[in-house]
Write a structure and sequence with these properties.
Elements: H1 3-17, H2 24-33, H3 37-50, E1 54-59, E2 68-71, E3 77-82, E4 85-90, E5 95-100, E6 107-110, E7 116-122, E8 128-135, E9 142-144, E10 149-150, E11 155-157, E12 163-168, E13 171-176, E14 184-187, E15 202-208, E16 211-218, E17 221-228, E18 233-241, E19 247-250, E20 253-260, E21 263-272, E22 275-278, E23 282-284, E24 292-293, E25 299-303, E26 309-315, E27 321-327, E28 329-332, E29 338-341, E30 347-350, H4 356-376
Length: 377
């Protein structure tokens, strides 16, 4: 036998004789037989965090602080801040753009179309912040306001990036992102009163369909307004909002949570014939408040409150269905894709199609967790 033939035979013998890596199910079964439930749960948890196929890994975790994430109205643009850097990823172009700044980004807001951002950073003066407008599409736009804001104050930017809005002592100001720097008070607090005016209120502003939404209130009771920046006009939409969150579904369509504690509704906000209004919603439990809509009618995604956070899908009128994926946080994108953070802080994008092995891992996880609980009792 020549040397070439010998080496080929050696490789084949090695492949044939090498021990086959144990099947993960076999490994879990052995741990169950040995009553090593904690070890089995740890392996299954890692499997449910990391084994789902992802289409894109947008960012690996090397953070000191928490990643701040924002999503455009059409859910096709994801923008996030990591310390001094702002990142932008678009589903259509599938590329990540970034811009670094000479300060830590403590918060930021984006325009509804996901092309503009206004960044907040702490100033050298205690307990006050500065804001800067930035455009991903017009790199010449880098405008810092001279106003000093309370670091908890809400702010926003127009789709074209030509105006920023912010609250000073609860009055709403507008400022063009060009010289001369000239802040203008466009509305006062009495124009968007909260349900209980004698209580100190939290006021926030969010983009919606080329205009803005304003929440005014505290605790579980908010008034909800539409603000037209061109006409400087405010329109009351509801006095019964439970949480100051807006859940976008697509351009000119999203959801708010209305009602009162113990009697909650997920209520659609729509634009028809240039008129914005709330339509009849449907009752939900408290755990459903942060649900995000999928493309199928009346179908939503949420995650469990307890850690590890398990994704769940629910359809109006049906029970929740647990999905075989653990996440720390998530954002539903268009085309039923999902961006999420895993437990090591990576930001990834995947779909909601799961393999048989993934469903089996969830089945095992629930089974072993029950065994561990029974052992503890």
């Amino acid at each position: 036998m020549n040397l070439k033939g010998f080496s080929t035979l050696a490789v084949l013998l090695f492949i044939t004789c090498a021990p086959t890596p144990p099947n993960w199910k076999t490994e879990i079964d052995e741990l169950i037989l040995k009553e090593k439930y904690a070890k089995a749960l740890s392996l299954l948890e890692n499997r449910l965090y990391f084994k789902h196929e992802t289409k894109w890994k947008l960012s690996e975790s090397k953070l000191i602080g928490k990643r701040i994430v924002r999503l455009s109205e059409n859910r096709q643009v994801l923008i996030w801040a990591e310390e001094q850097t702002l990142f932008r990823w678009t589903l259509a172009e599938d590329k990540v753009e970034s811009k670094s700044f000479p300060y830590i980004i403590s918060d930021f807001a984006i325009s509804g179309n996901g092309q503009m951002a206004v960044l907040q950073h702490k100033s050298n003066t205690a307990n006050v912040c500065k804001i800067t407008a930035y455009s991903f599409t017009d790199l010449s736009l880098l405008y810092e306001s001279e106003s000093y804001l309370d670091c908890n104050a809400s702010f926003a930017i127009s789709d074209g990036g030509n105006q920023i809005f912010y609250f000073l002592e609860n009055d709403l100001f507008s400022e063009k992102t060009s010289l001369p720097k000239n802040p203008i008070r466009v509305a006062v607090e009495s124009q968007y009163p909260p349900p209980f005016p004698k209580l100190k209120s939290k006021i926030s502003i969010l983009p919606f369909s080329g205009e803005f939404l304003i929440f005014s209130g505290i605790g579980g009771s908010y008034c909800f307004y539409q603000f037209n920046p061109n006409k400087e006009k405010l329109n009351l939409l509801s006095k019964e909002i439970v949480s100051p969150i807006y859940l976008p579904f697509e351009h000119q369509f999203g959801y708010v949570v209305s009602g009162k504690i113990g009697d909650l509704n997920l209520q659609p906000l729509v634009v028809t014939n240039n008129k914005t209004f709330l339509t009849k919603g449907f009752g939900i439990g408290y755990s459903f408040i942060h649900s995000q809509r999928l493309s199928t009618k009346d179908t939503f995604i949420l995650s469990t409150k307890e850690s590890p956070r398990l994704l769940q899908r629910w359809i109006l009128g049906s029970k929740k269905e647990s999905l075989p994926l653990f996440v720390e946080r998530f954002w539903v994108l268009s085309n039923d894709l999902i961006a999420y953070e895993n437990k090591v802080g990576d930001l990834v994008v995947g779909n909601l199609v799961f393999e048989e092995d993934e469903w089996k891992a969830l089945e095992y996880f629930n089974k072993v967790r029950k065994m561990k609980e029974e052992e503890s009792n």
